[in-house]
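User: Structure please.
Assistant: Input sequence and predicted structure:
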Amino acid sequence: MNRPFGDTFESLILETTGASSFEPDKVIQELWSGYGQIIRLKLIGSDRDTVVVKHVMMPFANQHPRGWNSNLSHQRKVFSYQVETEWYQSRSARCDDHCRIPQYLGFGRDGESVLLILEDLDSSGFPKRLSSVTLDQADLCLRWLAEFHATFLGDSTNGLWETGTYWHLATRPEELEALDDEPLKSAAVRIDRHLSEARFQTLVHGDAKLANFCFSEKGDAVAALDFQYVGGGCGMKDVAYFLGSCLSESECEKNEARLLDTYFAFLEAALRRHKPSVDPREVITEWRDLFPLAWTDFHRFLKGWCPGHWKINSYSERLAREVIKTL
């Protein structure tokens, strides 16, 4: 691999890790729309064997794979990397082993590029990435989300997205305009308002898809990463998005009630530990009613963004119609 960084970032990596030198090991992922890379580095002379760095380079022009290429899209991505940096610097230390994340190690800026240095979760016992899950594995992710939501219930969004999730209505006018489902289009603002005006707000992960969860070798523990869209919101946004990311239409139909009950059991226990002054029954009652709206909110984005997407199915269509009738 060619030398991926300039002198400024090389010095930062050595200073942060205490290494005498390092070698690029692997490009883990190319960032969306050509905004950089996530790279694993092998360290020499450090008490860590490896670290992962997120190297973000802001392009002045890019080609979005689905054609959504605008200044608004660019500004949204730029702010998302600012949010992730703020998240790691100011909030991440509050995540314990119940909602495990990569440890934040350092950050630097060099012109239009930024570098985030993080613990390598693979080396720390979370090397598995799954493309599908059993119900028990889904439960692990739901527990992580419940712990995360309980930890940050009622927290300030300063420095983060005021409303988390990458599909938030206010940041997606192009996709709304492209939506050809008129009843859903007409209901979009009301759905968003119901979610935004919920009494109980927390910080949501904002991109809690299965690909952002890292599993232990035995599959009995999980950690999460990628906090570009963390911000305020109802926890149901994460839960609905997660379930939609890893369950088929028939699995959603069959297991929705069981999985929601599991999440809320975890949430109740976590709230009793993290927020003893909050009655968990009140949170659960409100959020359970908001689950169909959260699902429909993402469905609205998806139908405008990519009308042929595999996640658009009869389960989502039925749920959306039922939500629209109740508004």
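Residues 60-69 have pLDDT under 50 and may be disordered.
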